[in-house]
Design a protein that fits this description.
Distance between the termini: 25 Å
Number of strands: 7
Structural class: alpha+beta
Order of helices and strands: EEEHHHEEEE
């Protein structure tokens, strides 16, 4: 077995940009534009409630929090996790990173303005188990 060689790769595309992650074990990534959408309908009741909790706890706008939750959910789908699996807040940093988790999967999310993108973007990266120490 070669060391340092990625066993898994994930890519995501939005607004002409590509995000890619690679690593051993399960990895996934997603990009979601932060825009006004019918988030409650798109996220479902449980994840919409998580998004509202993030708004209240972080003071971040509702569309940004919803886009974080959506992108995390997309990462879970790419990782083969059952659709609708519950997500919970696992941690956050003062620098804007927020980690959501379900089971052994941790998804680090970040909202940023990226040069050339029309809207802010929610970026999400998933790892699992011992590799989830993001």
């Amino acid at each position: 077995e070669a060391t340092g060689v990625a066993e898994a790769v994930s890519t995501a595309h939005a607004d002409g940009l590509t995000l890619a992650v690679a690593g051993r074990g399960t990895v996934a990534c997603d990009i979601e534009a932060v825009a006004s959408r019918p988030w409650v309908h798109l996220l479902g009741a449980e994840r919409a409630a998580l998004s509202r909790t993030l708004v209240e706890g972080r003071g971040e706008d509702a569309d940004a929090c919803a886009a974080r939750v959506w992108a995390a959910g997309e990462c879970l789908i790419k990782a083969g996790v059952e659709p609708g699996a519950p997500l919970a807040l696992a941690g956050e940093d003062d620098d804007g990173w927020l980690v959501l988790e379900t089971g052994p999967h941790a998804v680090a999310t970040y909202v940023a303005r990226v040069r050339g993108a029309r809207e802010r973007l929610a970026l999400a990266v998933l790892a699992e188990g011992a590799d989830a120490g993001l």
